[in-house]
Write a structure and sequence with these properties.
By secondary structure, this protein is an alpha/beta fold. The protein has two domains: about 5-115 and about 290-305, NAD(P)-binding Rossmann-like Domain (Rossmann fold, 3-Layer(aba) Sandwich), CATH 3.40.50; about 115-285, Dihydrodipicolinate Reductase, domain 2. About 30% of the residues lie in helices and about 20% in strands. The protein contains nine helices and 13 strands. The strands form two sheets. The protein has a seven-stranded mixed sheet with strand order 8-9-7-10-13-12-11. A six-stranded parallel sheet has the order 2-1-3-4-6-5, sandwiched between helices. α3 links the parallel β3 (about 55) and β4 (about 75-80). It catalyses: N-acetyl-L-glutamate 5-semialdehyde + phosphate + NADP(+) = N-acetyl-L-glutamyl 5-phosphate + NADPH + H(+). This is N-acetyl-gamma-glutamyl-phosphate reductase. Pathway: Amino-acid biosynthesis; L-arginine biosynthesis; N(2)-acetyl-L-ornithine from L-glutamate: step 3/4. It is an enzyme of class 1 (oxidoreductase).
C-alpha cells in the first residue's frame, strides 16, 4: 500500500515534535525530512512541499508567510501559526463547527486553531449560531494553561533547577489586552466585539481550562436557564468524536475542575454550571492536544481522507 508523504516544516519545535512523534508511528505515513543544513534553505523546503502529499508548518508567523508566498497553490498545507486563521482564503481547522469538517476535507490550506481560541470558540460559537446569545453581547473569557503553551523557551524557564520563586505562582499575561488569539476568537464566533480575555499560565506542564461567565439576562428568550444552554451545547456536539458535553452541573474532581486532567488527550470536555441568575461555561482539554498537535493531526487526517481520529488519544 502506498504511503502518504508528509513534510513537517519546523519539526524541532514543541508542536512540530509532537506531530512528528504521532505520525512516526503510523504505518500509512512516510515522513519526509531535511538535512540539518537544509532546514533554513527555502528552495530545499519548497522541494519537500512539492514532493509531499501534505505539509504541516510549525513555524513563527513571518516564516509561515514567507514559505506560503512561494509554495505551489495546489499543495496541501496545514499551518499551526496565527498567520492565516482569519484569512479568507484559508479554512479554519475546527472540524466540530457546522459544515467545517467538509470544508477541511476539500481544502488545500487549513489553519490550525489557537489553544485558547479552541476552548472559547467551542463554548460560544454554538450559542451565537443558534441565536441563543446576541452577537453584540460583551463577553469575558478566562483561560488557565500549563507552561508548555509558551514553547521551548518557557518550558526551559519553568523546568530550570535554579528558577525564581515567581514561577511557583500562577501568572496573568496578555496585559495589553491584545492577545494574538483575539482575532480568531471574535471572527469564528461571529461576535461583534472581541472578548475581554485574561490568560493565566501556571506551574504545570500541560492542560487547559477555558471559562466564559455569563448572566442569564444576556441570553435570548428560551435560553435564560442553565439547563437550556446545556441542552443546546449537548445537541450541537452530539455526533462529535472529540468534544464531549458533560452532564449539567457535574463536578468530577472533588467539587473542582482540574485544568490538567486532560493532559495527554486530544479530546475536549465541556461543562455547564448555573444558578438562578448566572451561567458558567467551561472547556477542558490539553493545550498540546486539541489545542495544538492533536488538532493538526485531526486536520491532516481529514485532508488526506484518513479516519478523523487516527493517531489521536480520545
Amino acid at each position: 500500500m502506498a504511503k502518504y508523504k508528509v513534510f513537517i516544516d519546523g519539526a524541532a519545535g514543541t508542536t512540530g515534535l509532537r506531530i512528528y512523534e504521532r505520525l512516526g508511528q503510523a504505518t500509512d505515513i512516510e515522513l519526509l525530512s531535511l538535512a540539518e543544513n537544509e532546514r533554513k534553505d527555502l528552495n530545499a523546503r519548497l522541494a519537500k512541499i512539492a514532493e509531499a502529499d501534505i505539509t504541516v508548518l510549525c513555524l513563527p508567523d513571518e516564516a509561515s508567510k514567507e514559505i506560503i508566498a512561494s509554495a505551489p497553490k495546489s499543495a496541501k498545507i496545514c499551518d499551526t501559526s496565527t498567520a492565516f486563521r482569519t484569512h479568507s482564503d484559508w479554512v479554519y481547522g475546527f472540524a466540530e463547527l457546522t459544515g467545517q469538517k467538509t470544508k477541511i476535507q476539500h481544502a488545500t490550506r487549513v489553519a490550525v486553531p489557537g489553544c485558547h481560541a479552541s476552548g472559547f470558540i467551542a463554548l460560544v460559537r454554538p450559542l451565537i449560531e443558534k441565536n441563543a446569545l446576541p452577537k453584540d453581547t460583551l463577553l469575558s473569557c478566562h483561560s488557565l494553561t500549563g507552561y508548555s503553551g509558551g514553547g521551548k523557551a518557557m518550558i526551559g524557564e519553568y523546568q530550570a533547577k535554579d528558577r525564581a520563586e515567581k514561577y511557583t505562582a500562577p501568572r496573568l499575561y496578555g496585559l495589553p489586552l491584545k492577545h494574538k488569539h483575539l482575532p480568531e476568537m471574535q471572527t469564528l464566533t461571529g461576535l461583534s466585539n472581541a472578548p475581554l480575555f485574561t490568560p493565566v499560565v501556571a506551574d504545570y506542564y500541560s492542560g487547559m481550562l477555558v471559562t466564559v461567565p455569563l448572566f442569564t439576562a444576556q441570553f435570548n428568550q428560551g435560553y435564560q436557564e442553565g439547563v437550556a444552554v446545556h441542552q443546546l451545547l449537548a445537541d450541537y456536539y452530539h455526533d462529535s468524536l472529540l468534544i464531549q458535553v458533560q452532564p449539567f452541573g457535574v463536578t468530577p474532581d472533588d467539587n473542582m475542575l482540574n485544568a490538567n486532567e486532560y493532559a495527554g488527550k486530544d479530546s475536549m470536555q465541556i461543562f455547564v454550571y448555573a444558578n438562578e441568575s448566572q451561567i458558567l461555561l467551561a472547556a477542558r482539554f490539553d493545550n498540546l492536544g486539541k489545542g495544538a498537535s492533536g488538532a493538526a493531526v485531526q486536520c491532516l487526517n481529514l485532508m488526506l481522507g484518513r479516519d478523523e481520529s487516527k493517531g489521536l488519544v480520545l
